[in-house]
């Protein structure tokens, strides 16, 4: 009896072990089943967009999940190759081909193909060599995950040279570049002898001639010494106009669909025309088309062209459609002057998140220094400029607040330029949205802003830049 019982123990243990192994295998199968399909599922493309501009072209793919992307460039001919992992070629992706515009300054054409399983390859045929930036953005506002491809020229556009090339030279205006060339001409050994003028350099077929710059002709030496006289040149005053938002960032949207980024660009263009028609004044647009410009880049552009004033143009929105009126804001170092000013500054400062900034290439140290250099003098000048604007705008529209408000707007933090942000009206108010849509009202706003600029300079004549006095 004992022997029979003992002989059955190994058999019982064997049966128990087998059952345990079958249970573990079944549990493992149950755990693995939900995981494998989720890993194999390809991402879904929600939208594709392109934003061509002279400064750079942006291509955006919006998806329901984050993708891994690798890219490289090729020469002869110039191409950009982007491999997207976790994606299948489909009709939505092929729509990107039709969105490449013939006038795109960087992209000639685009090809899309399934390079290998689960990997789609995009090949951009380029019109010029580029310095690409490829990065992803987390969901924000109305957007899901975005893959962004920014195609920058290898030689970045210089805003000062671009502005000088577009304007006609006035010999009675003190233009920094013209004066530098004048000094070189005056101090050159060639001007001390009566040598003939050199022949102009030959131009390649189709090549545009360089910007015309007035250079003085060497005068004959006087018989008797003459007392020096001050230059009759008048300093050119530069106004930086900053149409808010753009590209991926539409800004506020009215009930009828009017987008803030569109209307403020129209107003800025009209104001630029008015300023350019004034003697000794010129305007520079931080964006002259529908593309996104990061906040710190807007400030850097204004400083690069040595602007005397910085005017950021917006169209306000509020949670209640009854809010109305125009507002003007200046920078504050001590906190916002009202709860609404703080809310608005937070909303405008979030433009970088919505528009999409490549944090990997952003020089945070330089940006921090730039933002920390704002001075009390700049803020005081900005308050005076803002008051002049309110005096003129109230003639054509109700004011939301009768005084200049203050908050920590990142776009107003140029340390050496009086800077204001103008909320032309509430685009969230149906009546004011219709006014903003009207070309005649846009012109009235532009004229009021020009009058505000002129009023400010009457009381605060522009001083020579430090570099000009050297």
Could you explain the architecture of this structure?
The chain has helices at 2-40, 91-98, 159-166, 176-187, 260-276, 295-304, 339-349, 351-355, 364-372, 376-393, 430-437, 439-459, 466-469; strands at residues 45-51, 57-63, 68-74, 79-85, 107-116, 119-126, 130-137, 145-153, 173-174, 234-235, 237-243, 281-285, 309-316, 327-331, 405-407, 419-426. The chain has 470 residues and is an alpha/beta fold. Strand 7 (130-137) and strand 8 (145-153) form a beta hairpin. Helix 5 crosses helix 12 (439-459) and helix 10 crosses helix 12. The protein starts with a helix and ends with a helix. The relative contact order is 0.10.
Proportion of residues in β-strands: 15-25%
User: Can you count the helices?
Assistant: 13
The major pleated sheet works out as: 6 strands, mixed
> How many DSSP E strands?
16
> Helix share of residues?
25-40%
Radius of gyration (CA) equals 31 Å
Calculate the terminal CA-CA distance, rounded to whole Å: 116 Å
Strand arrangement, major sheet: 12-11-13-16-14-15
Shape: globular
Overall mean pLDDT score? Answer: 80
Regions with little confidence, pLDDT below 50 for 5+ residues? 1-10, 27-39, 168-232, 466-470
- What's the SSE pattern? HEEEEHEEEEHEHEEHEHEEHHHHEEHHH
């Amino acid at each position: 009896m004992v022997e029979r019982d003992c002989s059955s123990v190994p058999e019982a243990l064997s049966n128990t072990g087998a059952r345990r192994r079958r249970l573990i295998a079944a549990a493992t199968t149950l755990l693995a089943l939900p995981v494998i399909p989720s890993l194999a599922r390809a991402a879904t493309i929600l939208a594709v967009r392109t934003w061509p501009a002279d400064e750079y072209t942006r291509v955006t793919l919006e998806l329901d999940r984050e993708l891994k992307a690798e890219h490289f460039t090729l020469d002869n001919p110039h191409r950009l190759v982007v491999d997207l992992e976790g994606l299948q070629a489909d009709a939505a992706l092929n729509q990107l081909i039709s969105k490449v515009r013939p006038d795109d300054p960087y992209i000639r054409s685009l090809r899309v193909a399934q390079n290998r399983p689960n990997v789609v390859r995009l090949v951009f045929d380029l019109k010029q060599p580029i310095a690409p930036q490829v990065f992803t953005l987390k969901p924000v506002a109305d957007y899901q995950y975005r893959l962004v491809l920014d195609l920058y020229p290898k030689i970045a556009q210089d805003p000062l040279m671009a502005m000088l090339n577009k304007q006609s030279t006035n010999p009675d205006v003190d233009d920094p570049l013209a004066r530098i060339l004048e000094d070189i001409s005056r101090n050159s050994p060639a001007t001390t002898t009566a040598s003939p003028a050199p022949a102009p350099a030959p131009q390649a077929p189709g090549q545009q001639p360089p910007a015309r710059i007035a250079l003085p002709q060497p005068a004959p030496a006087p018989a008797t010494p003459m007392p020096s006289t001050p230059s009759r040149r008048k300093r050119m005053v530069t106004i930086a106009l900053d149409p808010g938002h753009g590209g991926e960032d539409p800004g506020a949207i009215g009930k009828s669909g009017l987008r803030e980024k569109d209307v403020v660009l129209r107003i800025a263009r009209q104001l630029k025309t008015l300023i350019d028609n004034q003697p000794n004044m010129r305007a520079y647009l931080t964006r002259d088309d529908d593309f996104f410009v990061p906040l710190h880049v807007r400030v850097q552009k204004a400083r690069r062209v040595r602007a005397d004033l910085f005017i950021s143009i917006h169209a306000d929105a509020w949670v209640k459609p009854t809010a109305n009126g125009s507002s003007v804001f200046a920078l504050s170092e001590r906190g916002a002057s009202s709860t609404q000013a703080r809310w608005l500054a937070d909303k405008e400062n979030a433009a970088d998140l919505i528009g999409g900034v490549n944090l990997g290439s952003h020089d945070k140290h330089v940006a921090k220094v730039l933002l920390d250099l704002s001075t009390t003098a700049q803020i005081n000048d900005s308050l005076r400029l803002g008051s002049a604007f309110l005096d003129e705008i109230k003639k054509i529209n109700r004011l939301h607040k009768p005084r200049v408000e203050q908050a920590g707007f990142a776009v107003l933090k140029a340390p050496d330029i009086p800077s204001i942000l103008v909320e032309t009206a509430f685009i969230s108010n149906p009546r004011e949205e219709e006014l903003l849509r009207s070309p005649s009202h846009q012109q009235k706003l532009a004229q009021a802003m020009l009058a505000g600029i002129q009023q400010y300079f009457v009381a605060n004549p522009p001083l020579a830049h430090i570099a000009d006095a050297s």
